[in-house]
Amino acid sequence: MAELSREELDGIYAFAVNLGKEAGRMLLEAAQLRYGDKRPKEKEHVEKDNAVDLVTQTDEDVEAFIKDQVTKKYPSHKFIGEETYSKGASREYLIGNEPTWCVDPLDGTVNYIHLFPMFCVSIGFIVNGKATIGVVFAPFLNQLFSACTGRGAWLNETQQLPLVRDPIPSMPAKAPGGCVFACEWGKDRRDQPDSNLHRKVESFVNMAAEVGGRNGRGGMVHGVRCLGSATLDLAYTAMGSVDIWWEGGCWEWDVAAGIAILSEAGGLVTSANPPENEATAPVEEVRLGSRLYLAIRPAGPSPTETGREGQERTVREVWRRVRNLDYSRPGA
Amino acid sequence: MAELSREELDGIYAFAVNLGKEAGRMLLEAAQLRYGDKRPKEKEHVEKDNAVDLVTQTDEDVEAFIKDQVTKKYPSHKFIGEETYSKGASREYLIGNEPTWCVDPLDGTVNYIHLFPMFCVSIGFIVNGKATIGVVFAPFLNQLFSACTGRGAWLNETQQLPLVRDPIPSMPAKAPGGCVFACEWGKDRRDQPDSNLHRKVESFVNMAAEVGGRNGRGGMVHGVRCLGSATLDLAYTAMGSVDIWWEGGCWEWDVAAGIAILSEAGGLVTSANPPENEATAPVEEVRLGSRLYLAIRPAGPSPTETGREGQERTVREVWRRVRNLDYSRPGA
Question: What Pfam families does the annotation carry (chains A, B) (predicted)?
């Protein structure tokens, strides 16, 4: 087991926050090359259709920057980045007990290409397999999310998460009724009866439909939201702005930082896929590499249950309404 | 027909921008009462379940403020606000040729209740039935959108819309492929075969599914996004961040300011519901009170078509994939 002192961890946290700010600024500057007065003259006629190459280059540049900074400062730490990792042959789960940086230089790539504001850099630091530090910076929104075990979770370093505190609201008695439900359509768009597209849509409709509808599965959520970034979905759940996030297909670099932030804020993250006995099975902590995530916002107690009980009740109500998603990984 | 000089219009525009900023700050301050250190002690234990009342009060207070300012400054102008209007018995369309303010003090009410950042104040000014000035301020995001006929459309008064310019990108050749598609699930959640819920979901799936799927209707959009605010959907379309927005059920105060901003940026707004000959029928300008909206982002020319031709092609490709929505109004 890796051992890090409080002082060491605080130093790593401060370093990660600054790194996130710098990397986020790089993302925004690269985006501005496409539209602002900072655009080099020779690139004046970059067409939107070519934006994908530009994004790939930005991804690689930002990851290289982060990796370089980390390697210089903490040469003994392991580094897993989306870009370097994706080029490897396998997609095995490589996170062990050693201190490990798990980084997505640009989450929300489609958003970035279209200058839809919800894109960010996502820097996670993992110790003994646990997401311990998370830094997420969305530079277009000027929203910086950060957390370190034992130090609280924060928006822009000044507003503690969740935003509504003293008391933190309990989960609604009729959850998922009264909840903001965040989800993503994703890339798997196969029009086959059992594709993830149709599994997801059936689940979304169950969550949204009136109570009594869908053979008793209607969840009548307060709102359905799709932002296009798993990282920001998790960060918004930590804010308390999203009550429930349900998604499959992400990789650990998409969620490591967000899970660190949400966990430190008091949220719960478990598996998107219902276990066999969904009503009674234990609500287990998510496996970081599972690719299947169900997140519940931080919750305070109600007169009849603890915050954790309210979260677990909500998990079971979601599990009752969603289908198993079909995402796997090598060796899983 | 009402006649306003350029100077008068510019004066009204400057007034509207300041009004939007002040009203947005009121929204954020009221929200902060629920979580920040500005919360009065006696309200310390406001529960989330009571937030609806608080929001209604905020809605009314902000609309009263805006109406008071407008009435003092422009006593001859007509004023239509969501709050005052909704209390009336009918929902007739009341906009004529006279200079008319059309205001939603708080768009994205569900977002506001949950402190999900996408809420805003929306101030439209209409002359001869046309949305002429629009001011939208989302204070949590610190995003101010503004436009006046002939003066361009702007983000935070400094970045002209759409964001990608010189040249403004043409619509993708395979639109809706390559497009960001914004839509909303809305409040009509009836689980009946022909409800708006099921009409919408069928349309969403057509837009998202792989090309070749859905009996040839698969649109393979680049991303599906749901923000929970019609006003911000329109503003993001004006940015160029959203390529296509399709929605029914809004009222004129939800869209007047956004349509002014999108139109001035070069976007197109027509009806959500396909006409009978969707492939050849003229693409008509939207009727402000129609409750059915299909918006396309500003588009530049390609080697083979004008920007407008690309937008109209996209409109027809959307019409081919969506179902008629069932929203009406008294007298329509």
Answer: Inositol_P
Q: ipTM for the complex?
A: 0.94
Strand partners, B131: B126
Residues A55 and B167: their CA atoms lie apart, in Å, by 19
Of A114, A191, A205, nearest to B210 by CB-CB distance is: A191
Q: Assess whether B16 and B55 both reside in one domain.
A: yes
Q: Do B222 and A47 touch (CB under 8 A)?
A: no
Q: Is residue B26 part of a domain?
A: yes
Do B101 and B203 lie in a common domain?
Answer: no
A180 closest CB neighbour out of B110, B164, B201: B110
pLDDT tens, residue by residue, A139-166: 999 999 999 999 999 999 999 999 999 8
Give residue-wise pLDDT tens across range B176-211: 999 999 999 999 999 999 999 999 999 999 999 999
Residue B16 · residue B9 · CB < 8 Å: no
Query: Is A169 among the domain residues?
Result: no
CATH code (residue B211):
3.40.190.80
| Cross-chain CB nearest to A191 (options B44, B218, B242) | B218
B254 is an annotated ligand-binding site residue: yes
- Residue of chain A whose Cα is closest to the Cα of B119: A241
CA B45 to each of CA A34, A91, B51, B115, B175: distance values in angstroms, whole numbers, following the listed order: 48, 49, 11, 17, 50
Beta A120-127 vs A100-107: how paired, if at all? Answer: antiparallel
Indicate if B43 and B189 belong to the same structural domain: no
Mean pLDDT confidence for A207-216: 96
Domain count, chain B: 2
Same domain, B58 and B151: yes
All residues of chain A having their beta carbon less than 8 Å from the beta carbon of residue B236 are: 116-117
